[in-house]
TrEMBL record:
It comes from Nonomuraea guangzhouensis. It comes from the Bacteria. PANTHER family: ABC TRANSPORTER, ATP-BINDING PROTEIN. Coiled coil: none annotated. This is ABC transporter ATP-binding protein. One of its GO terms (molecular function) is ATP binding.
Amino acid sequence: MIALEGLTKRYGGKTAVDGLTFTVEPGRVTGFFGPNGAGKSTTMRMILGLDRPDGGSVTVNGRDYVNVPLPMREVGALLDARALHGTRTARNHLRWLAHTNAIPDKRVDEVLRLVGLESVARKRSGTFSLGMGQRLGIAAALLGDPKVLLFDEPVNGLDPEGIKWIRELMRGLADEGRTVLVSSHLMSEMALTADHLVVIGRGRLIADVGMREFVRHSSGVLVRADDQELLTARLIGAGASVEPGPEAALIVTGLAAGEIGKLAMEAGVALSELTPQRLSLEEAYMNLTRDSIEYQAVVA
Ligand code: ADP
């Protein structure tokens, strides 16, 4: 588990991470989502103790990661796969990491097999494609068999096959009971990968919500009724939000079409239209950032 408490980071006069408080639970993939510059990488660096917070705290499995004697056994991280030294072979790179963390050599061959790099283990990593470099970075993250894994934008620049592979890998790691935090600036990617979603914008927490819940809130229902005023009151009473839609229709979010139909029936309101309208997740995110306070109230 990772726990952040009021985590804050400033660069010069600018606040990059602004009082973040949330936990990342084991056994699921938590998506860490926000536009470029939102503060995802800075947060991840602070979790790893690579950057010192200006306020608040972060613990990994209950303690400061900085004070962990053999860090690779506690947390595995893929930060920037391009920051690789190219002169060592893949195998030697991993053996060197293993040595400094008291990890047996045989684990190196295990992780090379796990990420599908056995055949190129004796090639210099500088000759690797982006996808192979990414696999090597993941091999390093897995080396210490850690219970907590961080992936910062792992699918950037990968081909569809590599993307699918990383998704399945993260799913498998979560299913083994590990804590998995993966960042992305692409909501479509999050939707396919994450069970839970932490959304930040300008360094602040915008939402901490289950993926299914988020998707539910991202789909509205277009409703036309004979007494829209009465229905609107009932819908709001049931926790939905109601906005004006096209041609005097209502757009209802927060309730499924079936629930709306039932409420209308109970209120004696006749419906002439009840049509689910799926927003794209990107649109949902735009709504979420626009009405972040309102949305959090709904989720809570
Ligand atoms: P993300 O990973 O979500 O794209 P970052 O954490 O990289 O966001 O950046 C958050 C903000 O902090 C940005 O405005 C960025 O310019 C700034 N920032 C990040 N690292 C540094 C640094 N080392 N020095 C100065 N500013 C930084």
